[in-house]
Amino acid sequence: MAIFALALSILALFLGPLLVVISRRRRWPLDLADGFVLVSVVALVLIEVLPLCFEAAGAIIIPLALVGLLLPTVMERLRLHGAGKAHNLALYFGILGLCIHGVIDGAGLSLFSDGGQDAQGGGLSLTLAITLHRLPEGLAIWWLLRPTHGRRGAFTALIATALATLIGFGAGSQLAPVVDASLLGSFGALLAGALLHVVMHGPTPASGPKRDSRMGALGALLGALLVYVVGSVSQFHPDGLEQSHSGGILDGFLALSLESAPYLLLAYVVAGFVHALLPKATIDWISRGRSPIQAIKGLAFALPLPICSCGILPIYRGLVGRGVPLAAAMTLLVAAPELGFDAVFLSVTLLDGPFAIARVVAATLLALLVGIVLARWCGRTPGVVSAGDAPPEAPEGPLLSRLTAGLRVGLGEMVDATAPWILVGLLIAAFAAPLVEKDWIGLLPPWSEVPFFALLGLPVYVCASGATPLAAVLVAAGASPGAALAFLLTGPATNVTTFGVLTSIHGRRTAVLFALLVGATAILLGIAVNIFLPTASTVIGAEDGHIDMPTGTLAWTCLGGLGLLFLLSLARQGPRVFLRHLFSLPDDPEHCDDPCHSDSHSHG
User: Fold this and answer.
1) H runs (alpha helix) in 278-352
2) Average pLDDT taken over every residue of the chain
3) Collapsing DSSP states into helix, strand and coil, what is residue 301?
4) What does the alpha-carbon distance between residue 203 and residue 144 come to, in Å, rounded to a whole number?
5) Model-level pTM?
6) Is the dihedral of CA 314, 417, 336, 449 positive or negative?
7) 435-447: per-residue pLDDT in tens?
8) Using CA atoms, how far apart are residues 562 and 236, in angstroms rounded to an integer?
9) Residue extents of the structural domains in the chain
10) DSSP letter string, 388-445
11) Rounded to whole angstroms, what are the CA distances from 377 to 268, 333, 385, 525?
């Protein structure tokens, strides 16, 4: 199998230039391949490879995977400071890096195809991931070298990378007998992070036919089908170990999806109706009254907005630029992503009613307190940005046309913004559910749970709906309701991008006060919830991490409808734009339509 995998990986490397030639006239083969490679490699790494590495090496694989993912990005950004003649030198270093990466790929193929990890059912997954990601590597080499060094230079680099892969393969076969499981798991995690970097930052041509998002979506579906087949086949592995990984994760993901689908569909419809029927609050109306009144109006204005953490920042910038008082704007900044209908309904189904009520009350108090206190401390800080980004206006006209327009928002724009977060949240919850039995949260002192999870949520970039399944897993694992609530409060309300935008508009003092106030208030509210709501129930089994599979026609029908909405969103945007809500993925360098992406690059 190892020789066959090696041959396929080298063949995939040389398929890249062929796709470039074909895409000069027809773009769809390139988009199809891009969607397929992006989804299949990311899913294989997250569902198959990293869980096995975690079992072999422990928690050390997390920072190693992050190093593999982020180190190339840091090096690329450092190279951007050079210009002119330095460009060629940077290009040569980049090709050298790809050759070194080829050595690592070859060693990985040798070690994992017929080596120790194959005996545990993980070799097939990593071998597939390594082989598939060679396609964007070949594309990268051709796009970088063909314009400046011609075909001969590009082919020379491809051949050098292939030879480096052969060298790594030979070295790996010599190391296989003496490498232990923990070292192999650590190496696999580093390689997995590098694989994610390559596929998520795959280059795209700056000219040529327009990107075909539908073909990209089709490729993504084919990639997901491949992952499903690999997971299904691995369930029948002779030693049965793989069932605890991909098979269990996919089963848990399906169970959580069935449980959540009816409530998510209802949330999208309700959000559309509210957006259509609730009268639009004017800037003058929001500005009347003292800070507490303005904060309440900002809260009312935030409730019907179909936006998540990413979408609120352009709206906030636009409102401040148009003179909206700080109390109202800050309240809206916190409340809009915290109080989404989808997140509230998910709290009801994945946790319970009392916890959902506590979440709504706590988020409301947090938003109002942040708006009022910051208005008192910082005053009305003049906006220094243009009002280019205005909040979505409520539709006008006859009732039927308003409802139709509202549903377009609820079933369209809101799905586009939240679907990636929901999928990732459900996937993380399914991945973490089997770890419930590890009782790792019990290692934390009881007094530190709430502060720990509140501080954990401050810098991360997470949607409220995507964080809800993870909160359910935390509760099932033994975390207190207050700890889960503290994470749900700080996660959607704050992240590194939020701090950067606040600093650019209001100054560093306001950004620091915002972070301190949100963190401290979330801790106090979490402690209060633990006093009045010491326990909370969840659909995830607290004893063994098993997720009960819902039955019935309604759940499957709603899941089909929700899946259709997500597929339409994927077809509208394409896989890279779809996932850009989660990561800063490059699309077309000269055509960036996503406001969150452009904002992060222009003002981050």
Assistant:
1) 283-287, 291-302, 309-321, 326-338, 341-350
2) 74
3) helix
4) 9
5) 0.65
6) negative
7) 555 556 777 788 8
8) 30
9) 2-244, 254-580
10) -SPPPPPP-SSHHHHHHHHHHIIIIIHHHHHHHHHHHHHHHHHHHGGGGGG-GGGGS-
11) 37, 17, 21, 21
| pLDDT range class, residue 519, cuts 50, 70, 90 | very high
From residue 384, give the alpha-carbon distance in Å to each of 15, 18, 283, 392, 505.
49, 49, 18, 21, 6
Instruction: Report the C-alpha gap between 112 and 169 in whole angstroms.
Output: 11
**Cα 549 from Cα 253, distance rounded (Å):** 10
Joined tokens for residue 214: 């539908």
| Tokens of residue 376, six digits | 């008192």
Lowest-pLDDT range, 25-34, 215-224, 366-375, 426-435?
426-435
CA dist., res. 273 & res. 408, Å (int):
10
Sequence-ordered list of residues with C-beta below 8 angstroms from that of 313, at least 6 positions apart, any chain: 497, 498, 501, 596, 599
Q: What's the one-letter identity of residue 406?
A: G
Nearest to 449 by CA among 360, 523, 356: 523
The contacts of residue 329 (CB under 8 Å, 6+ apart) are: 298, 316, 319, 320, 371
Q: Could you identify the residue written with the tokens 């449980």?
A: 259
Residue 474 in 3-state DSSP?
helix
Q: Report the alpha-carbon distance of residue 574 to residue 570 in Å, rounded.
A: 5
Contact 298, 368 (CB under 8 A): no
Three-class SS of residue 115? coil
User: Whose structure tokens read 């309700």?
Assistant: 270
Could you report the per-residue pLDDT of 451-501, keeping only the tens digit for each? 998 988 887 656 777 778 878 888 887 889 999 999 999 988 887 767 877
- Judge whether residue 575 has pLDDT over 60: yes
Cα–Cα–Cα angle for 111, 115, 118, nearest 5°? Answer: 115
CB-CB contact of 463 with 492 (8 Å): yes
Q: How far apart are CA 19 and CA 432, in angstroms?
A: 38
The rounded distance, in Å, linking the Cα atoms of 363 and 341 is 13
Under 8 Å CB-to-CB from 426, ≥6 apart: which residues?
A: 253, 256, 257, 260, 469
For residue 464, the one-letter residue type is: A
